[in-house]
Amino acid sequence: MGKGGASIPDEEWERFLKEAEAGGAGAPEEPSARARMVAQRLREEPGGPPEGWRTYTPARQRKGKGWAALGLAAAVAVVVVAVGPWGIADWFDGDGTGATPLAAESERPTGPPAGEGTDRPPTLDEPFRGSPAARWSDGTAGIHLPEARATGWMSRAEVARALEKTRDFLAASALDPAVLRGERPDKAMALINPHQSDVRDYLKKAFRAPDRENDPLLLFSRFRSSDVRPAGDVVKTRGRVTFQEGERGAVQVSTDVTYVYPVVRAAGGDDEVARTIVRREVVMSWDDPAKIVIEPGTFSLVSYKVDTTNGGCDTYTGYLTPAFLAERAATRPDGGAEVDPYDRSTSMEERMRESEDEGCGTASRS
What we know:
The protein is α+β, with helices and mostly antiparallel strands and 366 residues long.
C-alpha cells in the first residue's frame, strides 16, 4: 500500500478475514453482492448494458460499476475525526463566496445546472469559483434524506436509524479526513456485512494490490497526501437517498451523491487549485437477520457505480490523482463524448450507456 496507507497490521487484517467467515449457522446463506446486483438488473432492466468500466477524463473522467465492499466489525460507526487539514470542523465552514446554497435535492433534476462563469478559475480563497458546486451545501448537509416510513421488516423508527447509518457510511467513505488522506476506511467498512465473501475478497485485494477490477476508489475517496493537500477545507456535495422494500422484506437503500474536492499540490510553490469530482451510486440492503446471515447494525452491499472527473484515468493506484493545468495540457483525450460532471439529470446507468467504449475522454467543466 502507498504512503498514508493501512492503519491495521496485515496480521490483524488476516485474523479479521478468517473470523468473518465463521458464524451465522442456521440462517439462510447471504447472497453475494454480485448475485444481488445481477438479480436487480434482471428485474429492472432486462438486456441492460454489459458490466464493466466506463471512462471519461481531463478534466478527465473515469467510470466504473460493479459490486463490492467488506466489513470490519458489527458495531455502528460514528465519524469522529480531528480538526485540521481535512478536519471535520473545516468541512462545514463554507467556501467564502457568500452564495446562497441550493435547496436539498429531493428528486432528480430535469437538466444540468446553469453555467457558473467557468472563465473564472478557482483560487485558494474561492476554490469552487466557476463551478455549480459554489451553491451546493457542505459535507453531509448536501445529502438529502427522505422521511422514514415503516418498510419491510423495519418499523418507521428502524428505517430512520438505517437512513442515518447510511449517511454515516457516506461520510465515512467520502468525507472522513483520514480516508481522504489515504488511510484505510475502517469506519465505513465496519458498517458493511462481514459475511459477504466476494466483498471481503474485493477489499482484501483492493487495499493490497489495487487493479482495474479491485479498486478502492469504487467505494472510497482517497488522495495520496504526499501529492496533494486540500484547498480550502470544504467538500461540496449534492445528492439524495431513497429507499424501498427489497428482497425477503429487506429495506433497500439507494444513494446517489456527487462530491467535489478542491486540492493544491502538496509540494507548494504555487496556488493553483484543481478540482476532482466523484459521483457514486451505492445500493445497500438492510436485511432481516432472521432471514439473512448478517451482523447487527450492518448492511449488505448490493451494487455500486462510480463516475470520476480529474481523478486519474486508467491508473489503478488506489488513490485519486488529480491533474493540474500543465498535466492536462500535455494529455490528449482519447475520444468519447464530452460529459458534464455536474449534470445529475441522468441516472448513472443512463450515463454509462452514453459511453459504449472504455477509455478516457473530456469533461465539459471541472
